[in-house]
Amino acid sequence: MISSIERLPVEIWFIILSQIDGNDVRKAFSNLNTFFTSLLNSPRLRICLNIKTGGCNVFKASRIPFCPETFEALHANLYGTSDLLLFLDSISSFPNLRSLSLHIRRQKNYLLLQSLLPQVPSLQYLAVSCAMFNFNKSVEPLFNRIFQLPQLRICKIRLSRNVFYSSDSELNLAISTSLRRFHLDASIPSASIHRLVQCMPSLRALNVHLYRHDMDGWSEFSLPQITKRACTIFMGRHICFENLAKAAPNLVYLHTIIEPYSHLPYNDLVRECNMNIAKTTIVYVQMTWKRNSNSDMFDIIPPITIQGREHDNENWVFEQTPRDYSILKKYSNIV
Most buried among 3, 54, 117, 276, by the most CB within 10 A? Predict the structure, then answer.
């Protein structure tokens, strides 16, 4: 039976192994026999490796039987990111790496990530969650490294809410001609969004989560029906569509998640949705806009959803365990 399995073409084995997580492949096949050892050492193999726990006893580069050309995707959660960065740093180049996901929570890892990005020129997908301790430190160096990746198509960046704040001075960023989709979750002024998208001339989809913006306009969402005009006016307080259209000539889709500056603007909305005002800590609105090819402006696409989150005040200080977000209201028809 073993010999018949080994008679399968190696191409089939490469396909089978590529569908299994790299950790499971290593545990199951690394010391099986010479046939599988040769498969795991082949540069033609493609592996996705997920690092979910930290610590030297859990993940060591010396225990990985794959050559650098093997890795196609490397993903790490909050606990495995440090080990993954050290693994990246131990190898000079990953020529076939297409996807990379990291959760940065230390300043040294943030700096290490900047230095390692040039080693992955084939990267097409990058997701970075970065909670920097120094809120005054600019993220401009990180964005420059990202925008210089020649084949990057999709980029998702999540920062601490107070990190990305720029003055009125121009951002000195590199130009990325490859990015098609960009997701930014950060506290960022509208003017900085326009300057960012100017650096992505091929951008087609933009997803932004905006914090601490204008306090007006939230009363519209306490009404049973909402109009397109009200949506446009509300968005105009956060993003200037005309400037965005000029800055990103190829942009087609804009998805926004907007939170108000404080709880004051949406008290009426919270009451109507039968939520406890004292416990409600976050309410936000999600909108999707599509560029009109005739007018070159953006039209709202239903539905609009209002979501909220409550905290248990008795356990909030100690447990820090908020309830999950729930949909408070959905506008499926916009007049």
Answer: 117
Entry pTM: 0.82
Residue with tokens 């965005």: 244
Q: What is the pLDDT of residues 136-179, one digit of tens each?
A: 456 788 888 999 999 999 999 988 765 444 444 456 788 888 99
Long-range pairs of 325-329 with CB within 8 A, sequence gap ≥ 24: 325/282, 328/269, 328/273, 328/275, 328/283, 329/221, 329/269, 329/272, 329/273, 329/305
Task: Look at residues 302, 308, 322, 303 and name the one whose alpha carbon lies nearest to residue 271.
Answer: 308
Distance CA 198, CA 179 (A): 12
Closest alpha carbon to 199 in 128, 248, 131:
248
Cβ burial 105-118 (10 Å sphere, 16+ → b, else e): beeebbebbeebbe
Over residues 261-287, the mean pLDDT reads 63
The full 3-state SS of the chain, as one line of letters, equals: CHHHHHCCCHHHHHHHHHCCEHHHHHHHHCCCCHHHHHHHCCCCCCEEEEECCCCCCCCCHHHCCCCHHHEEEEEECCCCHHHHHHHHHHCCCCCCCCEEEEEECCHHHHHHHHHHHHHCCCCCEEEEEECCCCCCCCCHHHHHHHHCCCCCCEEEEEECCCCCCCCCCCCCCCCCCCCCEEEEEECCCHHHHHHHHHCCCCCCEEEEEEEEECCCCHHHHHCCCCCHHHHHHHHHCCCCHHHHHHHCCCCCEEEEEEEECCCHHHHHHHHHCCCCCCCEEEEEEEEEEEECCCCCCEEEEEEEEEEEEECCHHHHHHHCCCCCCEEEEEECCCC
Beta pairing partners, 207: 183, 255
pLDDT in tens, 41-56: 888 999 898 887 655 4
CA 109/CA 119 separation, integer angstroms: 16
